Amino acid sequence: MKLRAELSLLPPREQARRLAAVAAFLVTQVERTEPHAPEAEAALAAIRNWGE
Question: pLDDT at position 1, please?
Answer without folding.
Answer: 61
